[in-house]
Structure formats: C-alpha cells, structure tokens
Amino acid sequence: MSTILHPALLKVRDAIEARSKSGRSSYLDSLPSAAQNRSAVGAANLAHTTAVFEPPAKRVIALHKAPHLGIITAYNDMLSAHQPFAQYPARIAEAAQALGATTQVAGGTPAMCDGVTQGREGMELSLFSRDVIAQAACIGLSHNVFDGGVLLGVCDKIAPGLLMGALAFGHLPFVFIPAGPMETGLSNPEKARIRQLAAEGKAGRDELLQAEERAYHSPGTCTFYGTANSNQLMLDFMGLQFPGAAFESPFGPQRDAVLNDSVRAVASATRNPTLALGHLVNAASLVNALVGLMASGGSTNHTIHWLAVARAAGYTMDWTDLDAISAAVPLLCRVYPNGVEDVNAFQAAGGTAGLLATLMDGGYVDGTAMTVWGTSLADTVGEVEPQREIFSVRKPQATRNPDVLRPWNQPFQPDGGIRLLTGNLGRAVCKVSAVKQNHRVVQAPCRVFNDQAQVIDAFKRDEFQSDVVVVVTHQGPRANGMPELHKLTPVLGVLLDRGLNVALVTDGRMSGASGKVLAAIHVCPEADSGGPLSKLRDGDWVSVDAVSGVLNTDADLDSRASSPKQAQAVSLGRGYFQLWRQHVSTAEEGASVLFEIPGEQP
C-alpha cells in the first residue's frame, strides 16, 4: 500500500491549507478546549437533563462518570432511507448502556425526500433545507451536556447538513451510522427506458407508476448511485462511519455489528481530544472524500455540499480544486447512472472498503488520515479484526466484479467523473463519467427557457428537430433556491437517442442521477445576479466542450441587457425563504446562508 500521496493531490491539498490558514485557525480557536464538564453545570440544568432517567443513570450523567452521547436524528418515514432510523435511538441507548455510557435524543432535523418533490414546488426548498438541518442540529446540541454525538441521516442535503451543524461543536467526537440501501428492484436502465417512453407518450401513467413502484419498493436508500449514496461513500472515506458499511443492508446480519461498534467508537473517542470532529475534518480528509467522489463517478451536488462542509471547518475550496482532483484521479466504478449495476452490486464487488484500498495502493488517498475509531484510514482496510471480517477488504486483484469496481491501474477512464467548464458564459460543473466520448462536445444554436416545464412543453410540441443546446435560466440559489431539474432527464435522453447532438446549460442543479446527456450546470454567476446566461437569446451559438473545459458563446453579450428576474413564488412555504434567496452565496461558495460571503460585509 503506497504511503506517498499523488503529487497533484498533494499540491491541491497544500494550496487549500495555504489559502485557508486564517479561516482554519479562526475555526479551531472558536472551539472549546474540551467537552462540557457536567460537574460544573448548574443543578437545575442537570435536573432538566436527567429528568427522564432512572436514579442510577441520573447519578452517572450528573457526576460525569461515563460518556453521555447526544443523538441528532433526521428520522421520518417520508424517506425510505430514513425509515429504519425509527428504532435506532433505543438500539443506540442499549449499545451505550453495555459500555456504561448513556444517550439522549438531543434533537431532530427536517429531512425532505427529493424523490417526492422533483419537478414540484417543494424542490425550491430542497437546497436550503441543508442549512436548516445544520441549524437544527446546532439547536439540539446547544444543550451542551454531551461528550460526543451520533448522527442519523443519509440522503441528499441531510448528511451534509448534519455534518455542518456538528462541526459547530467540533470539540466533540461524532459518528454517522448509515441505514443502508433497499434491495435491488427494477433495474435502473429499465426504469430509465420506461421514463423515456412515458416522456414520448408511448407508456401510460399506470405502466410508469408500476415501474417506479418496482424500483422504489421498501425501506432503505434508493439503489442508484446518486447524491444520497455519494454521501455515504464520502463519509466512509472521511473515517466518520464504520469502515466499509455504507451499503450494508438495513436488515442484514451485520447491522447490529455496525451499530454497536459505531457507538463503541464514539464513546471511546470522548477520551481522546485528537479524535474530535473538528480535528478529523481537515484538509486531508476533505480531499480524501473528494477523491472518492471522483473515482466513483459520484453526484454533482457535492460540488456544492462539500464546499459548504469545508467552509464549516474553516477551509476555502472552489471548483478549480475539484477539477484538479478529478484530473488526477482515475474513474474506477461503473454504478448507475455511470453503468448498469446498482450500489448493491458495488458492495458485493468490494464496496467502499475495496475502493479505498485500491486508491491507497495507487497513492490517491492519504491513509494516514485519522478516523473516529482512533486508527488511521489505512488501518481500517489493513489487517481485519475477526469481528469485522464481513467488512474485510477485497484487494484489487480480487475484485469480485471488474465491470463494477476496478483496481487503480486498470481504470474505466484515466480521470474522474467531474469537470470544470469556463468561458464567457461563466463557470460550470459538468459530470462526464456517464457521457459517451462522442457526446462530450456539443456546438449548436441554443433555445432559452426560464424553467423546465417550458422545455417539456416545447418537447411535446415537437419543436426540437435539430442539434440544440437547451439553456434553462433563473434557476440559481438567488432565483428560486436552485432546484434540481431532474424532469429534463428523460426528455433530453429521448432527443439524444433520436440522434441529435444535445446539451443542457443551466444555473440550476441536476439530480445526483445526472446521466448520459452533456450538461453544464451550476453556472456562476447565475442569471438572477446578471450573469451571462441572462443575456443569451434563442439561436445564439453555444459551445459546451467537456474535453477542453470550455463554455462559450459567439454572441455579443456586452451589447445586451439581462433578461428580467423572475417573480419569486411565496406559496407552499417558499415565502419564508425570501430573505435567504437575497443573501445566499453562489453555488461555487457552497450556496449557503450560514457563512460570510467573501467580499461582502457580514
């Protein structure tokens, strides 16, 4: 196993640390030197804390005789991925009791299902929910009577939000406990096929609904490799979850082992200040997580979320850093939408532990980074303790399915899944891992729309008869909260299958399931801030080039006025976020309202 980090990755990490020196120091200085000593907490405060406990436990907590762990849960049964968490607080308490420790549910956070809100009004609150979750986690932890914490959250904005909130209490150790994916149902390619047929009017609602119900059919995370499952892989790579357990079944035989050992780890970490979350989330672990994202072909949403996580830990990162990481890291995974198989097949092929091991072998992951287990990341994929044998590493030469997971020196492609595009239309993110080589450059006249519904209507009117760059403007954070435009996926896929050269350009987001259509997304500056997209008009020639990293138009934008801002909807809760839309940072700055935007007054 290599102990020398790839020089390009070391260069990126050094640059991040250099530019973040002041911010990181300020963050660390903001943290208390140790957890609250409950013997110094007021009597009335402690009485409220321990009111629900039996007398023996009251004394243990009040006299600070053992670790007291706060649980922040994002449980609801609106999300299939979070439904298993209903029983977790009691099981965590039982595991802690066996160690002589105690637990309390410190608080709950919102947790919305993007699968339910796709293409609907609620999606305009989706991105903002991440910062709400961070704030809710802070409120729960603000009781300040805990020695460490357990974080229960899986899906898109939820895990990043929990991590951001916990970082405000970075003097404490925290562990995530994953819930795991549902069993494989309808294959993802078949699901995509029926969606495209429905978009063309060749499949009815009943057929479409039956297909979707076969795909999403039980408790557990959706099985395609989207944002939720990218979260889980990245947390494994940061050493904040049981090694290799991201994709263990919710009801499998190893679930108790995952839960019990996670509680043991965080309880033990309360005695070691170096294992506090604020120290574990550092430049090394952040780069490791992003290496995992690129090597696995993960979700573009993390080009926003993990920059916000970094900022919560005092680091300043941008898309240039991510592009450099992607350029250096080979693509080693083919999991839908980058391939045919799902995360269950990936787990069977070696999973996150196997991917970690081969990336360490190639020098792409810093194995010296510490984990909440008190061991280095390399130790978690080295000699395996007997009780963790199920999570043992499949070494590269022993990968069980080379169509899904490959060793570092036999990649699917020599670089990672995400690119930075720049030009006179701004800066954008482009996911290329699922885009065929002959579709990675599109140069064509554009059609400009203000929302995805207009695109779908134009498709139904059969208006797309030639090569086209579909531009959807006024979809950024300040416009409407930056919704995902997932409903465009089937429509644009149909155009591609008809033989058209087609690309998407937008200041909005796509789903973590972004697939085969070339898409320049998250364009900054956004149209509502007067960005170049607001000056494009139908027929302007646009070049989207993911090979050279270019996003350009030959139109004379300087001679044009920006298109007017869109009216901000206030119904269905959106009015409560008007102030947020006015003050949110750019997508490249993490699209957050929680941090000061560089160059602006706090």
From TrEMBL:
Select a single GO molecular function from the record's annotations and give it. Answer: phosphogluconate dehydratase activity
In what residue span(s) does the Dihydroxy-acid/6-phosphogluconate dehydratase N-terminal domain sit?
67-379
Q: Name one Pfam family in it.
A: ILVD_EDD_N
In this chain the Dihydroxy-acid/6-phosphogluconate dehydratase C-terminal domain maps to 403-591
**What InterPro entries does this protein's entry cite?**
6-phosphgluc_deHydtase, Dihydro-acid_dehy_C, DiOHA_6PGluconate_deHydtase_CS, ILV_EDD_C, ILV_EDD_N, IlvD/EDD_N
Query: What keywords are annotated for this sequence in UniProt?
Result: 4Fe-4S, Carbohydrate metabolism, Gluconate utilization, Iron, Iron-sulfur, Lyase, Metal-binding
State whether keyword rRNA-binding applies. Answer: no
Q: What is its EC number?
A: 4.2.1.12
Q: Which NCBIfam families does the protein's record reference?
A: edd
Q: Which family does it belong to?
A: Belongs to the IlvD/Edd family.
The protein depicted here goes by the name Phosphogluconate dehydratase
What does UniProt list as this organism's lineage? Bacteria, Pseudomonadati, Pseudomonadota, Betaproteobacteria, Burkholderiales
Q: Which gene encodes it?
A: edd
